[in-house]
Design a protein that fits this description.
The chain is mainly α. It has helices at residues 16-35, 46-66, 74-101, and strands at residues 2-3, 6-7.
Length: 102
Amino acid sequence: MYSQGKNKAYSGQGNFAGNFLTLIVVFVLFAAAIFMTTFWTLSNAWWPTIALLVLVLIALIVPQHILGRSDAHPDKTANENFARASVDAEYRDAIKAESSKH
C-alpha cells in the first residue's frame, strides 16, 4: 500500500498512537466484561450477563467490523488498486527488460 508516496508494509504502519489507543480501549472493555462476572448471583444473573455480553460484543465487533473495514471505502480501494496495478506494471516491465538481456 502506498501513502504519501511511500510504500507501507501493512495498513497499520505509522499509526501507532491510534492503534495503541484502540488496544487500550478494547482491553478495558473486555476487562470490564470479565469483571461483570463477579456480580453473578443466583438471584441476580440477568443484568451482569447482559452487561457482559454487550461489553464483549462491543470489544470484539468494533475492532473487527468497524475499524477493520476502513480500507473498504471506494476511494481508498481505488487508490490501493491503482497502486497495486502500477507495481504490477513496474514488475512486468522489469521482467521484460531482464528477459530481453538474455
